[in-house]
Specification:
The protein is of the alpha/beta class. Helices cover 30% and strands 25% of the residues. It is built from 6 helices and 13 strands. It has a 6-stranded mixed β-sheet with strand order 2-1-3-6-12-13. Strands 8-9-7-10 form a 4-stranded antiparallel β-sheet, covered by helices on one side. A 3-stranded antiparallel β-sheet has the order 4-5-11, with helices on one face. Helix 1 crosses helix 2. The longest helix has 15 residues. It is globular, with a radius of gyration of 17 Å. The protein binds D-4-phosphoerythronic acid. D-4-phosphoerythronic acid binds next to helix 2 and helix 4.
């Protein structure tokens, strides 16, 4: 079946884990979009939930669909975050950030008791890294940060290149948080845990797309149906 149908299947299965009264993290991306669509239908039917959106795009969608929203300041502890991923390895470590929302996504996932990843089977990999690793960086001293990040990536065996993300119109992409994103071509990341720590140690790096130990389980959709994949 077509990829959108698979994404919708995974989103529908994730909805079965949502209970009345839950405080939810609302993910970003095309798969999470299906989840918010389906959640809104349940809210219209009387389901009582509140959600913290992980991006301005998801906020706008939720507002348009009348999904009640809150902020992480008002609701610092969430019950469940549902979000997509660009890559999922067997330990449920993720690469995220293809949609540029990784900073709020990681903050919201970290504030949640559980995080469910929803994806079609194309996201499952044996080793992370074929998908370019997004690294969110502060504008101040961008070139110095870029050099420092390049050194860390070299040491981790990522050959590069390290590209500043641009929008379709050629202008530099700026995140909801006002930062820029460097996308690192690694091919394969032998030790995601070590790379995650080394990137955080670089001043100027705000966040990166390696989500280590945050996903509780994944819901993977394939033509045979959506199945739960544990850690
Ligand atoms: O940008 C993100 O982090 C998205 O969640 C991404 O990881 C998955 O987006 P997709 O569901 O559109 O593939």
């Amino acid at each position: 079946s077509d990829p959108e149908a698979l994404k919708r299947d995974a989103a529908a299965k994730a909805l079965s884990f949502v209970e009345d009264g839950m405080r939810l993290g609302l993910g970003t991306g095309s798969t999470a979009k299906h989840f918010v669509d389906l959640l809104a239908e349940r809210v219209a039917g009387g389901l009582r939930v509140i959600g913290v959106p992980t991006s301005e795009v998801t906020r706008a969608q939720a507002e348009r669909l009348n999904v009640p929203l809150t902020t992480l300041d008002e609701t610092p502890e969430l019950d469940l975050t549902i979000d997509g991923a660009d890559e999922i390895d067997p330990a449920l470590n993720l690469i995220k950030g293809g949609g540029g929302a990784l900073l709020r996504e990681k903050i919201v996932a970290s504030a949640s008791a559980r995080m469910i990843v929803i994806a079609d089977a194309s996201k499952q990999v044996a080793t992370l890294g074929r998908y370019p690793l997004p690294i969110e960086v502060n504008l101040f001293g961008l070139e110095a940060t870029r050099r420092a990040v390049a050194k860390v990536l070299d040491a981790a065996g990522c050959p590069g290149p390290l590209n500043l993300r641009k929008k379709a119109d050629g202008h530099v992409f700026v995140t909801d948080g006002g930062h820029m994103i460097l996308d690192a071509a690694c091919e394969r990341i032998a030790d995601p845990v070590a790379l995650a720590a080394r990137l955080h140690a670089v001043p100027g790096v705000v966040e990166h797309g390696l989500f280590i130990g945050l996903a509780s389980f994944a819901i993977i959709a394939s033509p045979g149906g959506a199945e739960v994949v544990g850690r």
